[in-house]
Write a structure and sequence with these properties.
With 452 residues, this protein is mainly β. 11% of the residues lie in helices and 54% in strands. Strand 3 and strand 4 form a beta hairpin. Belongs to the SAM50/omp85 family.
């Protein structure tokens, strides 16, 4: 033990840094990782030098361009060490196909990615998705039919100055989606977006600042489309700044048993131009926040509580657009209600709201003989409400209205954790509803990555 301590405390100088196994990575990027080692004090304990070298190796690996990064400290001369990084680069070309499941929809996806494109850990990715969406409206009794939705995205990503904790993303996208399950229109969105993401190493939070410009078109209106939908039909151009912050300290993001999750998102819509040469514009602020706390109770039992709220505040005289509003309700949101089934309606159309609040509490219990498996009994109670702001936009009066009446439901079922998603099968009992709610008593299935 004394000999080991002597080795780690022996003063050394890092005399050189070498990289073995490099094929496509640029010297510029490698210099970002070698310079801090070469710029260290002339003498330091060997243990400190080893810690610095392994820290750089861990950061290199998180760039996602190496299969592995190993470190050797070679001491050929007394008092000097050479740091050797032995790496194996991943293949530049990566392609995959797969299927994705979500609420009321499934999709087939294909993606092609070029990694480390210019040698500085940049990547180019193109992906396309074709989805099958249920097409029958919620208020209709006929069986569900289906139709294809589609999306395309071209994404460029680059670590800022070679740092994987600071990422610049630029993407072009186009999306076609049918809203006919909830409302009488389809929407097409084409646009460009740029985002800068930073990981706060002190708190472990992720901050993201971005800009999005998109051309949106509401079309394919149904014969029973409401006035709310009809007046927003056609073209609009959105220009928006966005900011989001996420702190996730849960032990498992899919089915947590302990930890905290906080998320906030703010949109500042600089301008929305409507129509072709109509000259109108809409400005608004849109923000929402969510908090989730999971606590272990012992014996495989745990409890999770959640709170969510949001507001859409227009800065002009015009009311908010139907495709900018919030939606609430469904198997991953407020259980016991249909997807987007809580809040304002116009005729048969779910038109969304400008303010919402929701809360939930879930108790998870182990199954007999399956305590170590990712399947739990699930008991829940949840509540939510959503309203549309009137022309007066009295925030105090609106808050009182929002909090005066909640749609609530309780139930029990099973929660199953798969590798990338969670499945819930619940028996739901709506307890209190409003006249515009679309309820889902009885069995309800939910599939997703995030549950409230």
């Amino acid at each position: 033990m004394a000999a080991d301590n002597n080795v780690y405390s022996r003063p050394v100088r890092i005399s050189s840094v070498r990289f073995e196994g490099i094929k496509n990575t640029s010297e510029q990027l490698l210099a970002v990782y070698s310079a801090p080692l070469l710029d260290t004090p002339s003498k330091m304990p060997f243990g400190h030098a080893a810690m610095l070298a392994h820290s750089q190796a861990d950061t290199l690996f998180r760039l996602g361009i190496f299969k592995h990064v190993d470190v050797e400290l070679d001491s050929q001369r007394v008092g000097d060490v050479d740091v050797v990084f032995k790496v194996a680069e991943v293949s530049r070309l990566y392609a995959k196909t797969g299927t994705e499941l979500g609420n009321n929809e499934g999709s087939m996806t294909a993606a092609v990615k070029i990694r480390n494109a210019f040698g500085n850990a940049e990547s180019f990715e193109a992906n396309v998705s074709y989805g099958v969406e249920t097409d029958a409206a919620l208020y209709e009794t006929k069986p569900f039919t289906s139709q294809l939705g589609s999306s395309f995205q071209f994404l460029f990503s680059k670590p800022w100055n070679g740092n994987p904790d600071k990422m610049l993303n630029v993407n072009a996208f186009k999306q076609n989606k049918s809203m006919s399950m909830y409302s009488s229109y389809s929407e097409q969105i084409s646009g460009l977006a740029a985002k800068f993401k930073v990981l706060d190493l002190y708190l472990g939070a992720t901050h993201e600042l971005g800009y999005e410009g998109s051309w949106r078109r509401l079309f394919d209106l149904g014969s029973t489309a409401s006035w709310t939908v009809r007046k927003d039909a056609g073209h609009s151009l959105k220009s928006a700044l966005t900011y989001s912050a996420i702190l996730d300290r849960r032990d498992d993001p899919i089915l947590p048993t302990r930890g905290i999750y906080l998320r906030s998102l703010l949109f500042w819509i600089l301008v929305v131009k409507e129509g072709a040469g109509l000259g109108g514009d809409v400005r608004h602020l849109k923000g929402d926040a969510e908090g989730q706390l999971s606590l272990p109770l012992g014996g495989g039992f745990s409890i999770t509580t959640s709170l969510r709220s949001g507001i859409l505040w227009t800065l002009g005289l015009r009311q908010s657009r139907v495709n900018d509003r919030f939606h609430l309700g469904g198997p991953t949101s407020v259980r016991g209600f249909l997807q987007n089934g809580i809040g304002p309606k116009d005729g048969n159309d779910i038109v969304g709201g400008d303010m919402f609040a929701a809360a939930g509490i879930s108790l998870f219990a182990p199954l007999p003989y399956l305590a170590d498996k990712p399947i739990k009994f699930h008991f829940f109670a949840n509540a939510g409400n959503m309203i549309k702001l009137d022309d007066n936009r009295d925030i105090k009066a609106a808050s009182r209205t929002l909090l005066s009446s909640f749609s609530t439901a309780v139930g029990l079922g099973l929660a199953v954790r798969f590798s990338i998603l969670r499945l819930e099968i619940n028996y739901c009992l709506p307890v209190s509803v409003t006249r515009t709610d679309s309820v889902k008593p009885g069995l309800q299935f939910g599939v997703g990555l995030h549950f409230a």
